[in-house]
Automatic annotation (TrEMBL):
This is Histidine--tRNA ligase. Pfam families: HGTP_anticodon, tRNA-synt_His. Keywords: Aminoacyl-tRNA synthetase, ATP-binding, Cytoplasm, Ligase, Nucleotide-binding, Protein biosynthesis. It catalyses: tRNA(His) + L-histidine + ATP = L-histidyl-tRNA(His) + AMP + diphosphate + H(+). Signal peptide: none annotated. It is found in: Cytoplasm. It comes from Caldimonas aquatica. One of its GO terms (molecular function) is histidine-tRNA ligase activity. Belongs to the class-II aminoacyl-tRNA synthetase family. Residues 32-338 form the Aminoacyl-transfer RNA synthetases class-II family profile domain. The gene is hisS.
């Protein structure tokens, strides 16, 4: 019986997002939706649970995500292996291929939602975390790579985010990576004693991932490793140069980082990250790149694609770190109801205002009645409302409601007729 009464808490690393913090999330999501509309990207929504082979095949068997971090289980009804999505590019590609969305040309889409990885929870890194991503599928040119990077730059401007820098690299094409891979293996074989256990394990399975090591003891060794850019052919270099020219023409500063490989195996050609030094080890705010072979890899018709994803928690954390406060408006009005007799006409008026598009927070009475006017005005002020609507006895007797400004610029207190709400509702919207 004791266990039945024990408080049930959220799973470690999976957090509740409560008011007023949730208002910051809504503000950010609204900014993203407006941005995507400007760039012509349509919303796509895919399932949270996907077949496990989608990620094993798409992300790569020897990636950290597949090896260590996925929440996978077997469906008790039919024995199918399933996984809570650890990222959403593979899911978007699966949906595009399954529904033949590219039959009439390329598609630009975006998504937002929760992802899941079994990691040690820390600042900016949680077991349930949220991503917003943009994917352009069916487009092979470097212009779309650059467009997606410029879109990120536009988002940072829209939300007032500073102190992020762009790092850029090219992973070339598979045959170029194979030549680089052979050089990497030969190089690291010569220094095998200096490799940590993780690097030794990956030496012959995925040596490119060794370049992404966070082990301080291996940094000097990795810096001296062969650079993939040295193995790129003319076409790959031309693609990379074209991306850079567009960025430079638009005043985007960047740094070429030859060690930038990203965490998934599906990337080719352009890869990029927006990073900051303000979040410690979780400094990657947004990352992405081109993945021209992923659609075919998971069973669709071959088609090029490129995209990015950002971590919502990290972006909002960085905004806090920078002291950027989102402009989250309170309700237009707060309804002050002095007596039980005023409740019916007050609610009728409030409903009419809401129907006209005015946000109104209604004072809620307790068991002992509506409470004092003083306490109601304190709540009205704390709500952030611009006006208090006062349904006092004298006002109601004349068929009126008093409108009291609670913020500067609201004008003088005035009265308006209850019977003609539609005519004066706009006053509360435009002030």
């Amino acid at each position: 019986m004791a266990d039945q009464n024990k408080a049930i808490r959220a799973v470690k690393g999976m957090n509740d997002i409560l008011p007023p913090e949730s208002a910051r999330w809504e503000w950010f999501e609204d900014k993203v939706r407006a941005l995507m509309h400007r760039y012509g990207y349509a919303n796509i929504r895919t399932p949270i649970v996907e077949p496990t082979p989608l990620f094993v095949r798409g992300l790569g068997e020897v990636t950290d995500i597949v090896e260590k971090e996925m929440y996978s289980f077997v469906d008790s009804m039919n024995g199918d292996p399933l996984t809570l999505r650890p990222e959403n590019t593979a899911g978007v590609v699966r949906a595009v291929a399954e529904h033949s969305l590219l039959y009439d040309g390329g598609k630009r889409v975006y998504y937002m939602g929760p992802m899941f990885r079994h990691e040690r929870p820390q600042r900016g890194r949680y077991r349930q975390f949220h991503q917003i991503g943009a994917e352009a599928l069916g487009f092979a040119g470097p212009d779309v790579d650059a467009e997606l990077i410029l879109m990120c730059r536009s988002l940072w401007r829209d939300i007032g985010l500073t102190d992020v820098r762009l790092e850029l690299n090219s992973l070339g094409q598979p045959q170029e990576r194979r030549a680089h891979r052979e050089a990497l293996v030969a190089y690291f074989e010569k220094h095998r004693d200096a490799l940590d256990a993780d690097a030794q394990r990956r030496l012959h399975t995925n040596p490119l991932r060794i370049l992404d090591t966070k082990n301080p003891a291996m940094q000097e060794l990795v810096e001296g490793a062969p650079k993939l850019l040295e193995y790129l052919g003319e076409e790959s270099l031309a693609h990379f140069d074209a991306v850079r020219r567009v960025l430079e023409a638009n005043g985007v500063e960047y740094r070429i980082n030859p060690r930038l490989v990203r965490g998934m195996d599906y990337y080719n050609l352009t890869v990029f990250e927006w990073v900051t030094d303000r979040l410690g080890s979780q400094g990657t705010v947004c990352g992405g790149g081109r993945y021209d072979y992923l659609i075919e890899q998971i069973g669709g018709k071959p088609a090029p694609a490129v995209g990015w994803a950002l971590g919502v928690e990290r972006v909002l954390e960085l905004l806090k770190e920078l002291g950027v406060e989102p402009d989250v408006p309170g309700p237009a009005a707060y309804a002050v109801v002095p007596s039980s007799e005023a409740l019916a006409p007050a609610m009728t008026t409030v409903e009419a205002l809401r129907a006209a598009g005015v946000s109104v927070l209604m004072h809620a009475a307790g068991r002992d009645g509506p409470g004092s006017m003083k306490s109601q005005f304190k709540r009205a002020d704390a709500s952030g409302a611009r006006y208090a609507l006062i349904f006092g006895e004298s006002e109601l007797a004349q068929g009126l409601v008093a409108i009291k400004p609670l913020r500067e610029g609201g004008g003088e207190q005035r009265t308006r007729p209850l019977a003609d709400v539609a005519r004066w509702a706009a006053e509360l919207l435009t002030a």
